[in-house]
Design a protein that fits this description.
It is built from 9 helices and 16 strands. The chain has 2 domains: about 130 residues, Rossmann fold, CATH 3.40.50.10330; about 150 residues, Sandwich (Tumour Suppressor Smad4). Bound molecules: magnesium ion. Magnesium ion (MG) binds next to loops. The site of magnesium ion has 7 residues, from loops.
C-alpha cells in the first residue's frame, strides 16, 4: 500500500485517484435566452466548491456524444455536462448501460430532466451536487438503440416537431406552429399494444413518458417516476377543436388526466400501429413513422442527485 501511495505522489502531487479532475463538457449554445458561464468562470466556480473540473468545450450534439463515448472507453467513472435537455439527451446515448455516472449542470431553458431529478438549477448549487451528490440508477425509455429521457410518441407534439426546428425557440415561431398544429388537429385510429394487450383508440396524441415533463416544460405525465421500472402512457382521445385549449390549460395545472378523453396507463412496452403512417418523435426529434415499439430501459442511467 505504501508503495502505491508513494507512486501516486511522485506524479502530479495534487491528484490522487480520489481527486481526478472531473471531465466537464460545456455546450456554449445551450440556453440561447440565458447567459451561461464561460469556461473560465465555470472552472473558478467549481474551484470555490472544491471541485477540479477538466473543462471540455463541445461544438455540437454529435461532438458531445462522441467525446463522452471516448471518455467512457478511456475509463472515466464520472462525467459532467452543462447544458439543456438536448445536451443531456446526447450524453445519455453514450452513457446508458455503462455504469458511468452522469453529473448534470442544468443550463437550458426547460431543464425537464434535471427538474424530474430534483436537481438545483442555480450554478453554485448544481456544482455542489457534483461534489456532494449521490449516484442513483434511473430508468430511461428506448426505441431500438435510441434512448430517451422525457417522452416519445405520436400526434400533436410529433406533428409540431415536423413543422418547427427545435433550435428555433422564438415565441412567435412557436405560437405559429402551435396554431397550425392545433387548428388542424385530428384524431387517428391507432392500435396500441400495451404490454401486449390491444387497445384500439381514436387519439390526437399518445405520449409514452419516462419523466413528468416534456418540450417547453409541459407536465405531460405528472405522476411519472424515474425509478418505478415502467413508462406512463398518456392517451388523449378524439378532442374537438373547442376542447384543445381547455385540454392544454388542464395540462398546465397537471389535471388533464382527470378529463374524460384522457387515459393514463403504465407499461413496460408500448407498440403503436396505424393504417396510415404517423410521425413518431423521441424527445425533441422526429425519428420516423409508425409502427414503433417504445420500451422502458430500467435503471439504465447512473446519475448524480442531491442528498436529501
Ligand atoms: Mg417510470
Amino acid at each position: 500500500m505504501a508503495a502505491v501511495l508513494e507512486e501516486r505522489n511522485t506524479g502530479d502531487a495534487t491528484h490522487t485517484d480520489q481527486q481526478q479532475p472531473i471531465p466537464f463538457l460545456m455546450n456554449d449554445k445551450a440556453g440561447a435566452l440565458r447567459t451561461t458561464a464561460s469556461a473560465d468562470e465555470m472552472r473558478d466556480l467549481g474551484r470555490e466548491q472544491g471541485l477540479d473540473l477538466d473543462i471540455i468545450s463541445t461544438t455540437s450534439p454529435e461532438d458531445t456524444q462522441e467525446t463522452i463515448a471516448r471518455l467512457v472507453r478511456n475509463g472515466a467513472t464520472q462525467i459532467a455536462v452543462a447544458g439543456g435537455d438536448g445536451t443531456v439527451a446526447c450524453a445519455v446515448q453514450a452513457l446508458a448501460g455503462t455504469g458511468v455516472t452522469l453529473g448534470i449542470v442544468a443550463q437550458g431553458t426547460a431543464n425537464n430532466f434535471a427538474t424530474a431529478l430534483r436537481l438545483p438549477q442555480d450554478l453554485p448549487s448544481a456544482l455542489r451536487v457534483l461534489k456532494d451528490g449521490v449516484a442513483r440508477e434511473v430508468d430511461l425509455g428506448r426505441i431500438g438503440d435510441l434512448y430517451f429521457t422525457e417522452s416519445a410518441g405520436i400526434g400533436l407534439f410529433a406533428d409540431a416537431m415536423v413543422l418547427q426546428d427545435p433550435t428555433d425557440k422564438s415565441v412567435l415561431r412557436t405560437l405559429w406552429t402551435a396554431f397550425r398544429v392545433l387548428s388542424s388537429a385530428r384524431a387517428r385510429r391507432v392500435k396500441l399494444y400495451i404490454d401486449g394487450e390491444l387497445h384500439t383508440e381514436r387519439a390526437v396524441m399518445c405520449e409514452v413518458a419516462n419523466s413528468f415533463r416534456m418540450g417547453y416544460a409541459m407536465p405531460m405525465a405528472p405522476e411519472a417516476k424515474l425509478t418505478d421500472g415502467v413508462l406512463d402512457v398518456v392517451i388523449v382521445g378524439d378532442l374537438k377543436l373547442h376542447e384543445v385549449i381547455p385540454y392544454f390549460r388542464a395540462m398546465k395545472a397537471q389535471l388533464h388526466h382527470t378529463l374524460p378523453k384522457v387515459q393514463v396507463l403504465k407499461a413496460k412496452e408500448v407498440r403503436i400501429e396505424s393504417r396510415h403512417t404517423i410521425n413518431v418523435h423521441c424527445d425533441d426529434a422526429v425519428i420516423g413513422t409508425t409502427p414503433v415499439t417504445i420500451s422502458v430501459a430500467p435503471r439504465a442511467l447512473k446519475v448524480l442527485v442531491d442528498r436529501l
